[in-house]
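Hi support team,

I submitted a single chain yesterday and got back a structure, but I'm not sure I'm reading the token output correctly. Could someone confirm the output below corresponds to the sequence I sent? I've pasted both exactly as they appear in my results page.

Thanks,
R.
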Amino acid sequence: MSQTQHLLLIAPPVMERTPAFERAAALAQAMQVPLHIVAFDYVQALAVAGLFAPEQIRLARDGYLRTHRQWLTEQASLLARHHIKVTTEVVWVQDPFAEILQFVNEMPVILIIKDAQHESALKRIFYTPLDWQLLRDCPVPVHLVTDDTHPRPRNVLAIVDVLRSEEQDCLFNDQILDAATRLAEQCDARLELVHVYDWTTVYTTDMGFGALPLATGIHETLGSAQHEAFAALAERHGVPDPCRHFIEGAPVPSICEFADKMQIDVIVMGTVQHHGLSKLLGTTAEQLLHRAPCSVLAIKPQHTLQS
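Hi R., thanks for writing in. Yes, this is the structure output for that exact sequence:
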């Protein structure tokens, strides 16, 4: 395949222009990179029926795929009028994630864009939706879109965590903020930077009432250290003071409240692979996916937006 960097839009099976479709088109135009659109079609009823009438079902499946390909080709022609280079394809496959990884390895892909798929908590216990697979295991940034109010984002929010001071954590914060800054610049959007200081974590190891003065001292010391680290990070990336926000509280509710108040279009944050119980419960990024009032762009360690 071509070595030109691409955006990859995971189109839904339905033939309609969804919020992710509009966001992908806007970003391809803003970033001046080609857009590849792929739709993964798979109808379980047809697959099962094919066991009994394989030739008839093959014809029905081919007709369905042909119609979908024609629709995507028409959409690509419309986008080309806006000087966006678009390629499309439709794939009949039951496991889209494996196919997505192949695209990432061969294209190459700098950003995956997809409509956020909401799942109930009960369903998340028993299987991993494609969104969660992408957040946890996809090696490139993933943008999960919830609405198309502003196809080209106007307000971008970068979320960083300066609680830990290991070198890899500091580098990851720089990667997150670099990606958010690049996105804001390419879209001519305003960038806000937030760190949420969850002081309740200081008290998670219950040592009895006698430990409260000590815990309070730790709270003050950690808060001061985090504030200094946050200020240094913002300074390195040239974030102006009015756009720096050091908030105390529970991370997910605080971020959601801030994003709603500031009319944020995209939250840019980091996500890493988790295992065991933490994987079942989900990371902050996954919780935000279902609670944030806007779209989420997840950055993985050692990867950022390019172009």
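A quick pointer for reading it: The chain has a mean pLDDT of 82. Let us know if anything else looks off.

Best,
Support desk
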